[in-house]
Design a protein that fits this description.
Layout lengths: L2 E5 L18 E10 L4 E6 L8 H11 L3 E11 L10 H17 L8 H13 L7 H42 L2 H23 L6 H19 L2 H20 L4 H20 L4 H21 L4
Parallel strand pairs: 3-4
Antiparallel strand pairs: 1-2, 2-4
Length: about 300
């Protein structure tokens, strides 16, 4: 399921003020993005200083998320982006010494630029900050906001799925009276064939035996095209889908299974079809079920 949450400057994604800033001159920003996926796929884009926090973040996310392609991004920013710290003389001296050592072995190496020196000095000054307390706090707030966003999307998906369930029930009601009509039409067709055969017989075939044969074939045809069991199972699956959607919670995998069963019943209905109208009903069912399948795979 899709969702987005961002926490930075000491404020949560929901807008509540928090004191999640680490003790340092920089502030931490963290965002979580989630897109649809049948399985849980986590990826992290963290600065080097926060790489050690990845296992803790992974544990936090896997405890509450079951599906989705989830990306976590974190960034460290200065409190005042226009203010540049004065590089300490000792650090500049150390950089110069290291540069001379490197160029002694690699004469073709490019010298450090002013931007390189400022960046290395900034890293040397802030590399000792401890973010171990701030990162989990911000991640928890961002995760709560993400879950809320996904819940809102889940409610919209549930409304769509319930609408498809309603349409499937209407199609099942259309198919139910078709079968007795088809059976009666086929019985009359067999009886007409029997009468035609009797008109051409030379008297060697017993009329009663031929009539019994015709009725037996009609009965076999009725059994072959009977879809009462398929309609009953389809209604049962639709009842269970409605119950799960109203219940909520982690129902994605159960819905996956039920959609597969719906598709199986619709296929059987089509294979037993003996009339164009019943085939059309089967095709319409498959279209609706496929629409449901695409969305159900994203529901957690």
């Amino acid at each position: 399921m899709t969702g987005y949450a961002s926490v930075q400057h000491g404020a949560s994604a929901a807008g509540s003020e928090t004191d999640a800033r680490a003790p340092g001159s920089r502030r931490l920003g963290l965002e979580i993005r989630s897109v649809n996926s049948r399985f849980l796929d986590l990826s992290f884009r963290l600065p080097d200083e926060l790489r050690a926090m990845e296992p803790a973040l992974r544990t936090l996310l896997t405890a509450q998320l079951k599906r989705g392609k989830v990306e976590v991004r974190a960034a460290l920013e200065s409190d005042d982006s226009n203010a540049l710290p004065d590089p300490p003389a000792r650090v500049l001296q150390r950089l110069n010494t290291l540069q001379d050592s490197v160029r002694a072995w690699l004469p073709s190496a490019a010298p450090l630029s002013v931007a390189d020196a400022l960046r290395l000095c900034a890293n040397a000054q802030t590399g000792t900050e401890d973010w171990s307390a701030a990162v989990p706090t911000l991640a928890k707030e961002a995760l709560d906001a993400l879950i809320s966003a996904r819940e809102r999307e889940g409610k919209r998906l549930a409304i769509m799925l319930l609408d498809r369930v309603k349409q499937l029930r209407a199609l099942a009601q259309q198919a139910t009276p078709m079968i007795p009509l088809l059976v009666e039409q086929q019985r009359l067709r067999f009886m007409d064939r029997w009468k035609e055969a009797m008109a051409l017989t030379d008297g060697t075939t017993l009329p009663e035996a031929a009539r019994d044969r015709a009725l037996t074939e009609a009965t076999a045809f009725a059994i072959r095209i009977d879809v009462a069991e398929e309609i009953t199972r389809l209604d049962s699956h639709l009842d269970e889908i409605e119950r799960l959607l109203k219940k909520g919670g982690e129902v994605g995998k159960r819905l996956d299974f039920l959609i597969q069963e719906l598709h199986r019943e619709a296929n059987t209905l089509g294979s037993k079809s003996a009339a164009l109208d019943l085939t059309r009903v089967s095709v319409d069912m498959k279209v609706l079920i496929e629409q449901m399948r695409e969305q159900v795979q994203n529901i957690e």
